[in-house]
Design brief:
Elements lengths: L1 H4 L4 H16 L1 E9 L5 E7 L3 H9 L3 H9 L5 E3 L2 H7 L15 E8 L2 E11 L7 H39 L4 E6 L5 E4 L1 H8 L8 H7 L1 E4 L4 E3 L5 H7 L3 E9 L5 E12 L5 E10 L1 H37 L6 H33 L7 E3 L1 H14 L5 E5 L7 E3 L1 H17 L6 E9 L2 E8 L27 H13 L4 E4 L7 E8 L10 H7 L10 E5 L3 H13 L3 E5 L5 H8 L3 E5 L1 E2 L2 E2 H7 L8 E5 L4 H9 L4 E4 L4 H15 L4 E4 L2 E4 L4 E4 L2 E3 L3 H12 L5 E2 H9 L6 H15 L10 E3 L3 E3 L11
Parallel strand pairs: 14-16, 20-21, 20-22, 22-25, 25-26
Antiparallel strand pairs: 1-2, 1-5, 3-4, 4-5, 6-7, 6-12, 8-9, 8-10, 10-11, 11-12, 13-15, 16-17, 17-19, 18-19, 23-24, 27-28, 28-29, 29-30, 31-33, 32-33
Helix pairs in contact: 2-6, 10-11, 11-14, 12-13, 13-14, 16-20, 21-22, 21-23
């Protein structure tokens, strides 16, 4: 018991409990499983088992179910035959038992009414059963183990809470120092407190030495020299202090102004044990006040300039000197109007800045054309007298954006003015728009001064210092940030360094419209659908997982419905059930050639097939095309090429409503054939042969291909094809010696001329 209570480490405690219980009961094996407050297993400690046996128990799939059953027992359980008992519950643990172990005893562990786990002992020496005395030992150890577990958990929780508190204090932006009231010694300083105080230390000087020479000057003029009044005397009083502005200084004149709070920590008898001092550096607040003063000064200057022009022009016009012509007087009024507009713009910017800080800025977005916004902004910017050239690059298929047009024009004008202000007059300002997922990104670029990387994060602050770009972007960029974020977008600045220009990019959400104008991408997706609107299924057969994933993603992005298969064994079944519009087939599959598959599976003749392969030799491509393939793509290929070839193959194989070749006309929908307006009666096989030849017009269809497409591979005799072609020519009135409709490719097959080509003369 002493050994068990000597440690608060949970693993050590549990191992000691199990070993001691085994020694006193003669059990060969023991285990403890702990649970948390909700009954979820936490720790599992075993003794006597090998590592492999322990791992088997932990990884046993039925373990949680059996554990849940035993866990919920309300009293100890003693068994003479554990395997038989578990089999009666529907489980079998014979394969997990290390020996012919049968005897078992176990009990739940409770501490102050809380269930903390279960304790098990297995296989008593000599194969004997566990006794009542063994059960008493088990219960005794279970009670001690439960208490040890509770104490270890409480200790662990306390350590974790202490660590969290220490981390919170250490990373706090407020300095925290703790002093011992008995000796006046500092107990701890967090990082911010060290930064504040160490700025007053000389090289090699300790904090204790600094306290001996430090002077505290209060806001009301009082001074306390810690050299004359020791820190112990100050701390012994243990007075509470709240938000006192104190200047800490050393004899050489260095000082730090802080906002200090003092809180004593007292014992039960009200004796002060320690004092907690928090210190907040007021330098940042003073800097903020200084920047606000500069901001007000800048605003006053900006407002005073147009006001001076207005006052001067108005005074001159009112005096109406006799030598002023009416046109000159009109010019003064024009100046008054322009400067009044400028003042109005400045005041609106100030009001917007206030609304942004207060979180009260509102916008009214509506679907808007990006091109219109960019053109309007350029026109407004150039009409203000700027000499910069503005180039716009906007793709024609950009979606509309959700934008409050007046506000976004304000953003664009601010960005254009900012670019003009920091770049030469002869330079070009570039404005570009592009799709970024569900947003549209608009970028304004210049070739001006550029910025250092550490200045980019400060650009959208409204306060400035000496008018420098990079220390603060001023009111305009701050308003841009607020307006863009009010639309649900983001704004960022980029620069490759000083002298290399800057880029400002902001995003706007793309508009979701019921019937938007189709973009180029959407037009491609339309081609990927049947007339009924259902996505075309494309079957991809390849044993390379990377290729399957690449092709699937490319087809899915293009609007098709990809079906993927890693082997060819169920290819015929998949084609029959899914009815794909096209098959992408790997040339070299596991144990089979793709061309052989086309010859073995008749259903492949019913759909266009495109081979994908890493082999690009001419004879291989020719062999695949001769077998009836629609196309052949050599790896590696881009998603764009893949989708374009699929689209082209589907377009070629799409059955038209009517086929015309000279006098020959085929109505596919009605299955009617006529020559020169005269109906031609054909058998079902003759019509299927004519249909296959017409759909492949312009290409040679081999005997093998026609046998697969028309006779479904039921025969391999080319004489059947020749016989039916002869009968078909006779029905169409086609001369075999000088054919017009069905041309012979000697020892290969047949072809029909492309209707777009000039017909050969009879």
């Amino acid at each position: 018991m002493l050994r068990i209570g000597a440690s608060l480490d949970l693993d050590t405690v549990l191992n000691e409990v199990v070993k001691s219980a085994r020694a006193l009961t003669g059990a060969r094996y023991g285990a403890i499983a702990t649970i948390d407050e909700t009954g979820v297993p936490q720790d599992f400690v075993s003794s006597g088992f090998t590592e492999e046996e322990h791992r088997n128990m932990v990884e046993w799939s039925d373990g949680p179910k059996l554990f849940s059953f035993i866990r919920d027992l309300s009293k100890p359980l003693r068994l003479p035959d554990l395997p038989a008992y578990t089999r009666s519950l529907g489980y079998s643990i014979d394969f997990m038992l290390p020996t012919t172990s049968k005897t078992f005893q176990g009990t739940p562990m409770h501490h102050r009414g809380i269930h903390v786990g279960n304790f098990y002992l297995l296989d008593k020496d000599g194969g004997e059963q566990f006794t009542d005395a063994d059960e008493e030992v088990l219960l005794l150890f279970a009670t001690q183990a439960a208490a040890a577990i509770a104490h270890a958990r409480a200790y662990s929780d306390e350590r974790r809470a202490r660590a969290d508190l220490e981390a919170l204090i250490e990373t706090s932006p407020v300095g925290v120092a703790v002093f011992d009231t008995t000796g006046g010694n500092p107990v701890s300083f967090n990082r911010e407190a060290k930064r504040l105080v160490e700025s007053l230390c000389l090289s090699g000087q300790r904090l204790e030495q600094l306290l001996e020479v430090m002077t505290c000057r209060f806001a009301d003029g009082r001074e306390i020299s810690l050299a004359k009044l020791p820190i112990t005397a100050v701390l012994t009083n243990a007075e509470t202090m709240r938000a006192e502005e104190i200047e800490l200084s050393v004899p050489d004149g260095r000082s730090v102004t802080t906002l200090i709070n003092v809180t004593p920590i007292r014992a039960e008898n009200d004796t002060p044990l320690s004092v907690v001092v928090t210190m907040q550096d007021l330098a940042q607040l003073k800097e903020l006040e200084r920047m606000r003063a500069e901001f007000l000064s800048m605003v006053s200057h900006e407002l005073r300039a147009p006001l001076t022009s207005i006052k001067g022009s108005a005074a001159t016009a009112l005096r109406r000197p006799r030598n002023f012509a009416p046109a000159e007087i009109e010019q003064f009024f024009r100046i008054i109007e322009e400067q009044a507009d400028r003042m109005d713009s400045l005041i609106r910017d100030l009001l917007d800045a206030g609304r942004i800080e207060a979180g009260m800025l509102s916008v009214a977005p509506a679907p808007s054309e990006v091109t219109y916004l960019l053109d309007q902004a350029r026109t407004t910017f150039l009409s203000s007298g700027s000499r910069h050239r503005v180039d716009i690059d906007s793709p024609p298929d950009l979606p509309r954006v959700m934008a409050d047009q007046e506000r976004i024009l304000q953003v664009l004008n601010n960005l254009l003015s900012n670019a003009a202000r920091h770049s030469p007059e002869s330079s070009t300002i570039r404005v570009a728009a592009a799709r970024e997922g569900v947003h549209v990104a608009i970028t304004v670029s210049d070739d001006g001064h550029g910025l250092a990387p550490d200045q980019l994060t400060k650009l959208f602050r409204k306060y400035v210092r000496n008018g420098e770009r990079g220390v603060g972007g001023g009111l305009g960029l701050g308003i841009c940030k607020g307006l863009v974020e009010a639309h649900g977008g983001r704004i960022r600045a980029e620069s490759e360094g000083p002298g290399r220009g800057a880029r400002f990019t902001f995003t706007l959400p793309a508009a979701v419209e019921a019937n938007p104008a189709p973009t180029g991408e959407e037009r491609s997706r339309t081609a990927a659908r049947h007339d009924g609107g259902e996505r075309m299924r494309i079957l991809v057969v390849d044993d390379d997982p990377e290729t399957l994933r690449f092709v699937r993603d490319a087809l899915g992005e293009a609007g098709y419905a990809p079906l993927v298969a890693g082997n060819h064994e169920e290819l015929e079944y998949v084609i029959e059930m899914q009815k794909p519009a096209l098959v992408l087939l790997d040339l070299m599959l596991q144990g089979v050639d793709g061309i052989e598959l086309m010859e073995r599976i008749p259903r492949l003749a019913e759909v266009p097939v495109i081979f994908i392969s890493g082999y690009g030799r001419d004879e291989t491509v020719a062999r695949a095309l001769d077998a009836g393939a629609e196309d052949y793509i050599v790896k590696p290929f881009s998603p764009t090429e893949l989708v374009a070839r699929v689209r082209a193959a589907l377009r070629r194989r799409t059955e038209p409503e009517l086929f015309r070749l000279g006098d020959l006309a085929i109505d596919y929908e009605r299955r009617q054939v006529s020559v020169g307006g005269r109906p031609v009666a054909l058998t079902a096989t003759e019509y299927d042969l004519l249909r296959a030849l017409s759909l492949g017009a312009g290409r040679v269809l081999t005997y093998e291909t026609l046998l697969r497409q028309v006779w479904n591979g039921r025969s391999s005799d080319a004489r059947i094809v020749r016989s039916y072609v002869k009968r078909l020519r006779r029905e169409l009135g086609d001369d075999a010696r000088r054919p017009t409709y069905i041309l012979t490719e000697l020892r290969v097959g047949y072809r029909m001329p492309d209707p777009d080509d000039v017909l050969p003369s009879r």
